[in-house]
Specification:
The chain is an alpha+beta fold. About 55% of the residues lie in helices and about 15% in strands. Strands 1, 2, 3, 4, 5, 6, 7, 8, 9, 10 and 13 form an eleven-stranded mixed beta sheet that branches. The chain has a ten-stranded mixed beta sheet with strand order 16-19-20-18-21-17-15-22-14-23, with helices on both faces. Strand 19 and strand 20 form a beta hairpin. Helix 1 packs antiparallel against helix 7, helix 13 packs antiparallel against helix 14 and helix 15 packs across helix 23. The protein starts with a helix and ends in an 8-residue tail after the last helix.
Length: about 900
């Protein structure tokens, strides 16, 4: 009797543990999901603002018209405006929206040796403590004080206190004395060096001349120096205030549809508030505002934060699908474990309950007694789960709905044992393997499959509710699919097992025959074990598949955006910069890609072809630079690379036949396109076309031509042009010294470097949040699955022990008994591994539009699914290892026990 009490106490502890875990997961799930969304949003905003401030305010100002004397208040005016701009932030963002920098960049001036010196005032410049020698520039007299980096000092051979003469360059009519007052270290990762790399290091002119002559350099000046040079040149300058949005722990309030609307409303009102407090509409020479004594324009505000949040919302909507699946898998496995524990408890007390029934006790009374017996354990588990969840960051103690769901799960775990006890005492249907009820079983299994199919179809048609809200259908689909998979497996996997058993009847010995025969016969009784394994494996494989696909898909999308090792967008508008980049150190080959937006008409019937992108590229050069380019291969194979002598533009078309003629009209001029062949599908995803097609993938058609056939078009007629840069050892710093990172709304071209883009993709906080949530849920699900399997093995151990004992009486040895146990459990594990892995791999296809991974990655097409071998092989190997360990333990226990302890008369329910 003592071992029965110990066993009951152990099961009560197991039940309390399961209730604690389930309650904790259900209570903490929404809070953790919300915290993950907030952390991911903070990471995305930080990444977006790493290169440039999130919000920039620009004000153009003229030379001062009052008090043009030696004393100036520009520095004080800039500080006053900075404070006003900060205070104009909406109340909801007052603490999060802070000033990042105030900058004024002047056009280049010349110094004595012909070097072009770019002068800048920056409030985020190094402080006096960061100076290796001297001090920062100050507002003094008519001498412009400058400070340069230690690298510039060494390259230009400057010394402290040296006098220079600033002459006219891009900034005309300048002739001012300057003095070098300090040298600062520019070795840290300050964003100022990335945006204005000439402040950190010098650059040389690659177009000619001696390579050891410095042509470009940068220097810092004070606001007084800005005024001195502006008063001489009479130039209009621009001051830029950069604002940084640093959302804290409550960033999740902007996740979801309502949060996005609130954020967009704040971003819409903020520029109006800034304009209202920075401009009193006093008229100064045609300018409506004033910056101190300087006539100035109204404040112009630019920001990409609303677009960033919109993109994040779409991606988080898909991320919530993956995380919700993981949470649902944990819940399903935990509830299955509770069922197994309840069944084991019912079996252990079945003889006692039979005796109580024989003495006149009612089934309801026995069930009520079991409910009272387990109530303290359930209450303890619920309290422990809620307490554990409440200490997690992001879980609010006032979230009554989450605690209500936790209570509901605890009640389910509490009621399972009384219900199973009542059912077992009533007719023992759950503990007896009967042959009757086959029709009801078929109806139940068909119902499960139909409900699962309906849930998948409904989810595909409706999509997700998005945001961070609850989606019951989304949470139910993985459980329904797991049940449907178990139904199919229970029907299918006994068939090959029986075939192998019949085939093994020809062998010597009966171990294989008996083991496989019992495995096939007991398949329906092992449905719970199958469900645990299938749901756990499917969730693990699905999460690994998604995270692996997202990681590699983001890298592929980065390569699509860049097109080569680096690319310069806007090469047609800024040919001088494009030439400097082409001659930069490390650049081996260059290829120009250009795109026109055209609306072709059929040359035969006049019908519209559809809006198309006409992309031109030199096939020979592209083949030399990127041998795997499908666009280059298509042009060369079609024989149109290198241009032709006819007036027609030869193209490859994706929706027109060979020899068809199309006509286009560009700026009033009509030109003919002659289709020489079909466009291969692989060309549409060729990375070389990515820089010009990145924002126009939604166009109906694509036409590909050789660049030489497009020479009749002016550079300004092209919608976009890009210079692709190839080189195995490109130096990003050298390239950035030519084209620094620019703020939103700034003019000039855009330089994209693949190494930088892929580094940003690898650091994406959203994918990190999905991976972390999936890994944590997988770990909990695996632990619960192990517990459920151990309980399931204990539940079925008496039947296997009885069979082994009978065979030992017939002379079967210990090794044969171990083999019997292993073979009896092996089909179950193999079926679960096959079903779980297959379900996990097919889930993305089953969900269809409800899970659009392209929202995460971008790029021309949906990312290629990539299986994570670790998340696939480890759980499967773990299940096999657990079975092997269970067989070893069971064999050892069987040797210690006598046959009388196993073969009990009067028990025929095994």
């Amino acid at each position: 009797m003592r071992w029965v009490v110990r066993g009951e106490l152990g099961l009560l502890g197991c039940l309390a543990l399961l209730v604690a875990v389930l309650s904790g997961v259900v209570v903490a799930g929404p809070g953790v999901l919300e915290r993950s969304s907030g952390d991911a949003l903070v990471s995305r905003l930080e990444q977006e603002q790493r290169a440039v401030p999130g919000i920039t305010h620009r004000m153009r100002f003229d030379p001062e018209v009052e008090r043009p004397g030696e004393k100036s208040a520009l520095g004080a005016d800039l500080g006053r405006f900075s404070t006003v701009i900060e205070n104009a932030a909406p109340a909801a963002l007052r603490r999060e929206l802070v000033r990042d920098s105030t900058r004024i960049a002047l056009p280049g001036v010349r110094i004595g040796d012909g070097t072009t010196l770019s002068l800048s005032y920056a409030s985020d410049a190094p402080s006096a403590a960061d100076y290796a020698e001297g001090r920062p520039p100050r507002a003094r007299g008519s001498v412009v004080e400058i400070a340069v980096s230690t690298r510039t000092r060494d390259a230009l051979k400057l010394r402290l206190g040296q006098e220079l003469r600033l002459g006219s360059g891009a900034l005309e009519n300048v002739d001012a004395p300057a003095r070098v007052v300090g040298f600062f270290a520019a070795d840290d990762g300050r964003r100022l060096w990335r945006e204005q790399p000439l402040l950190a290091r010098t650059a040389r002119d690659p177009r000619g001349g001696a390579d050891d002559v410095v042509r470009y350099a940068g220097a810092l000046i004070a606001p007084r120096g800005v005024e001195v040079l502006q008063n001489q040149s009479r130039a209009e300058l621009t001051v830029v205030w950069g604002m940084r949005l640093d959302l804290g722990a409550d960033a999740a309030r902007f996740v979801g549809e309502q949060g996005q609307r609130d954020f967009e409303r704040l971003m819409f009102r903020y520029p109006e508030s800034v304009q209202g407090v920075t401009c009193d509409f006093g008229m100064y020479g045609g300018m409506a505002c004033a910056l101190g004594s300087h006539p100035a324009t109204e404040m112009e505000t630019t920001t990409q934060l609303p677009d960033t949040l919109d993109e994040f919302q779409r991606q988080w909507r898909q991320a919530s699908v993956v995380i919700s699946f993981a949470l649902a898998s944990v819940t399903a496995v935990g509830l299955a474990a509770v069922v197994v524990a309840s069944l084991l408890s019912v079996r252990r007390r079945l003889d006692v309950h039979r005796l109580q029934r024989a003495r006149g006790a009612s089934a309801s009374g026995i069930a009520l007694g079991r409910a009272l017996w387990t109530a303290p354990a359930v209450v303890l588990g619920f309290v422990a789960g809620c307490a554990g969840a409440s200490v997690l960051p992001g879980v609010s103690s006032s979230a009554s709905s989450a605690y209500g769901r936790g209570l509901l799960v605890a009640l389910c775990g509490w009621l399972l044992l009384p219900l199973l006890t009542w059912w077992a005492v009533r007719d023992r249907a759950l503990l007896r393997d009967r042959g009757s009820g086959g029709g009801r079983r078929v109806v139940a299994e068909a119902g499960v499959v139909v409900v699962a199919a309906g849930g998948v179809l409904a989810l595909r048609a409706r999509g997700t509710t998005g945001g961070s809200g609850d989606d019951p259908l989304l949470a139910a689909v993985p459980v329904l699919l797991g049940l449907a998979t178990v139904v199919v497996l229970v029907r299918l996997y006994p068939l090959p097992v029986r075939l192998v058993a019949r085939w093994s009847a020809r062998w010597r010995g009966a171990v294989v025959l008996i083991a496989l025969s019992r495995a096939a016969k007991e398949a329906p009784a092992r449905a719970l074990a199958l469900l645990v394994l299938v749901v756990t494996l499917a969730g693990t494989v699905f999460g690994g598949l998604v995270t692996g696909t997202l990681t590699e898909g983001r890298r592929d999308a980065a390569a699509w955006r860049v097109g080569a090792d680096a690319s310069f967008l806007g090469a047609g508008r800024d040919s001088e910069t494009a030439e400097r980049l082409a001659r930069a150190r490390g650049v081996r080959e260059t290829v120009t890609v250009r795109q026109l937006r055209v609306d072709p008409m059929s040359g035969t019937d006049g019908g519209r072809y559809g809006i198309a992108s006409l992309v031109g590229v030199d096939g020979v050069k592209l083949r030399s630079a990127a041998g795997s380019s499908s666009a280059a291969r298509a042009l060369i194979d079609a024989g149109i690379s290198g241009g032709g002598g006819s007036r027609d533009i030869r193209v490859l078309a994706d929706a027109a036949g060979a020899s068809d003629v199309l006509t286009i009209t560009v700026h009033g001029k009509e030109r003919r396109l002659r289709v020489v062949g079909p466009l291969p599908d692989a060309v549409k995803s060729d990375p070389a076309l990515g820089p010009v097609r990145d924002g126009t993938e939604g166009r109906e058609h694509l036409l590909l031509a050789d660049n030489r056939d497009l020479e009749a078009f002016e550079a300004s007629e092209f919608e976009e042009s890009a210079l692709l840069l190839y080189g195995p050892r490109l130096d990003p710093d050298r390239l950035r010294s030519v084209v620094p990172r620019s703020a939103p709304g700034a003019g000039g071209g855009e330089l994209r470097i693949r190494a930088e883009e892929q580094a940003e993709a690898d650091e994406d906080g959203l994918i990190a949040a999905v991976t972390a949530a999936h890994t944590e849920c997988t770990a909990v699900a695996v632990l619960l699955a192990l517990l459920a399997l151990v309980l399931e093995l204990l539940l079925s151990a008496p039947a296997r022990g009885s069979t082994a004992a009978r065979l030992r009486t017939l002379g079967l040895g210990g090794r044969a008994v171990a083999g019997l146990h292993l073979l009896q459990l092996l089909p179950l594990v193999l079926a679960a591994v096959a079903g779980g892995v297959t379900l996990g791999l097919t889930l993305p296809e089953l969900l269809g539009p409800a899970l659009d991974l392209r929202e995460f990655t971008g790029g021309p097409t949906a990312p290629t699914l990539r299986t994570d071998a670790l998340f696939t092989a480890v759980p499967a190997a773990g299940a096999l290892a657990l079975v092997a360990a269970a067989v070893g333990v069971e064999t050892w226990l069987g040797r210690r026990r006598g046959l009388g302890a196993v073969l009990r008369l009067g028990r025929n329910d095994d």
